[in-house]
Design a protein that fits this description.
Elements lengths: L11 H6 L3 E6 L2 E5 L4 E3 L4 E2 L3 E5 L5 E8 L6 E4 L2 E2 L2 H18 L4 E8 L9 H16 L6 H11 L3 H4 L4 E4 L6 H7 L2 E3 L7 E6 L10 H11 L3 H20 L3 H20 L10 H15 L4 E5 L5 E6 L3 H12 L3 E4 L6 E4 L3
Parallel strand pairs: 7-9
Antiparallel strand pairs: 1-6, 1-16, 2-5, 3-4, 5-10, 6-9, 7-8, 10-11, 12-14, 12-15, 13-14
The structure holds ligand 2P0.
Length: 348
């Protein structure tokens, strides 16, 4: 393997000799109307449309360097070699990019998260958005934002939304196959007329016991509540878009909270149940309700893990973070709306 006996990192000499490299930065997003359930696993076509806010904290930075002399991709996450299923997913994604680009070179991928991977802080969204942008640039694919969102979707559904900054809506799209692939992408949902913040209660930063990919499939397959949630989610999205347009944080928050509780209800009704909510989750939820009783507009949402994210006005964020820390006995981070994915360097 080229570079094996060099003091230089594997791949850099290859890039300098013949290849191209690109680095991209993407931020996580938190869904306010959730994505939970696919209608096509291979194409990552969702059953429902979703809406999220991209954050301005904890980005992922990914460099893709083409390595023509190597016979397999090498992928590191936080400096450690990726193996098993996570490696297989990245290689499958690079295979897709290579097909689209009509190229065959292997790649060296270096990816770094500002937070622990798998912590329920949407690192797969920022991860695949950054990988999509970096690999498209390295392999010479010229994609507009819609096409980049469709590509990122193939890595991880929620990554389609992290292509965009601020609020983004991911359209479920129509039908299957090529039509589904063409019509399922994210786009900006407009800037609200309020200054939002999301306070992230980090109850557990470790990897989750059940991946969202497996949990959502199990929920669709076995939960009698799933169809009702999916139907109500369409109404939630319409209401959310209208609430964003009129700058109504309270309506946005109420819809986000009920949509998240509904999603967790579908999981709790799955057979057997999938339960991500922990005792500290409920303590933080009580703390959020107490804030509202005190007149602070604050609304909770939870993803595939015990962590709670609290939507509030930016001006209330410090108070909300303090309340969350006290209620949950856990750290809390404050995030505002962040930027979409961008290629930051490494162009040939
Ligand atoms: C969301 N989640 O809308 C929902 C809410 C978790 C709970 O998107 O299988 O990692 O890779 O498409 O994108 C997490 O799901 O799943 C997710 P795949 P992904 O943010």
């Amino acid at each position: 393997m080229a570079g094996e006996h060099s003091a230089e990192p594997v791949g850099l000499r290859e890039r300098d000799r013949r290849g191209r490299a690109a680095t991209a930065v993407a931020h996580p997003n938190i869904a306010l109307v959730k994505y939970w359930g696919k209608r096509d696993a291979r194409l990552v076509l969702p059953r429902t449309s979703s809406l999220s806010m991209t954050l301005d904290i904890v980005p992922t930075t990914t460099t893709v360097a083409l390595a023509p002399g190597m016979d397999a991709d090498v992928v590191t996450l936080g400096g450690e070699p990726l193996t098993g299923e996570p490696l297989r997913r990245v290689v499958a994604f690079l295979d897709l990019v290579r097909v689209l680009a009509g190229r065959r070179e292997s790649a060296v991928v270096d990816t770094r998260n500002a937070v622990p991977t798998g912590a329920g802080l949407a690192s797969s969204a920022s991860g695949f958005a950054a990988l999509a942008a970096a690999s498209a640039a390295a392999y010479g694919l010229e994609l507009d934002a819609t096409a980049l969102s469709r590509l990122a979707r193939r890595g991880s559904g929620s990554a389609a939304r992290s292509v965009f900054g601020g609020f983004a809506v991911w359209h479920a799209g129509e039908g299957g196959g090529a039509e589904g692939d063409r019509t399922s992408y994210a786009e900006p949902a407009g800037a609200p007329d309020f200054d939002p913040a999301l306070v992230l209660a980090v109850i557990d930063a470790g990897p989750k016991a059940v991946s969202s990919r497996i949990a959502m499939r199990h929920t669709v397959d076995t939960s009698p509540l799933y169809p009702a949630w999916a139907e109500s989610s369409a109404a939630d999205l319409a209401g959310m878009l209208a609430a964003l347009r009129r700058g109504d944080l309270t309506a946005v928050g109420e819809i986000a909270e009920r949509n998240a509780f509904g999603m967790h209800a579908t999981m709790l009704a799955a057979r057997p149940a999938v339960r991500y909510l922990a005792p500290a989750t409920l303590q933080v939820l009580d703390g959020v309700r107490a804030l509202r009783d005190d007149g602070v507009p604050a609304f909770a949402t939870m993803d595939a893990g015990p962590n709670v994210k609290v939507l509030c006005h930016r001006t209330d964020a410090d108070r909300v973070a303090e309340a969350v820390r006290a209620a949950g006995g856990c750290p809390a981070l404050v995030a505002g709306p962040g930027p979409g994915v961008r290629v930051t360097g490494g162009e040939p």
